[in-house]
Amino acid sequence: MREIIAKTRTFRRFFQKELISSDVMHELVDLARLGGSARNGQPWQYMIINTPELCEKVFPFLGWAGYLSDWKGPVEGERPSGYILCLLNTNWLKGPESEAQFDLGVATQNLLLAAMEKRIGGCRIASINPKLATLFDLPAHLTISLVIALGRPRETVILEECKTDSDIKYWRDDDGVHHVPKRSLENCLITLDVVV
User: Which residues have a Cβ under 8 Å from the Cβ of 48 and sit 6 or more positions away?
Assistant: First the structure.
């Protein structure tokens, strides 16, 4: 479990021509839907996109890697070979939307862990141009909240320890290796005085 979690990183460059079958995409969504849900409302639906033609239409509406300000996203040949749109169904919402967003974190982590087990990498993208919705005949009760880009990774991602509390920005070296600083276990554990 530790190994698969450590390997499940955010990947932003892929072998674009290596397509992902509908069967595999369905399996990933099936594992996403099994995650826990507040009030068991299960308000999320998922649209699978795995044709080159539709992938090409989706790509321009997505923002990539905010910390890499000089990088506009993957070039042709390194773009995702599939996407999963995560749609909030407000007809199924049982509590505040914030609860549903927690559910989505659980669901998409299940999905990405399962993808990595199949050597498929992914990237959660919340920087979405609202005009993406105009590609589809979207009913009023559905909202695109997140897009998961998928494909076989074409980059190496290395975890390293933060040097300071503010040293959290990911970066790429001259060889294109992606470095992701993570806080140490010691920094994440805390002991508080009990006042009662």
Answer: 22, 25, 26, 29, 82, 83, 84
Q: ∠ at Cα 105 (138, 54), nearest 5°?
A: 40
Q: Name the helix (H) or strand (E) containing 123.
A: strand 121-125
Q: Which domain holds residue 196?
A: 156-196
Total domain count for the chain?
Answer: 2
Tell me which residue has tokens 């600083």: 181
Contact 85, 145 (CB under 8 A): no
Write out pLDDT tens, residues 41-73.
Answer: 899 999 999 999 999 999 999 999 888 888 889
For residues 41 and 59, state if they share a domain: yes
DSSP label of 38: G
Q: Are residues 144 and 165 in the same domain?
A: no
Contact yes or no for 42/101 (Cβ under 8 A): no
Asked if residue 4 has pLDDT above 90, the reply is yes
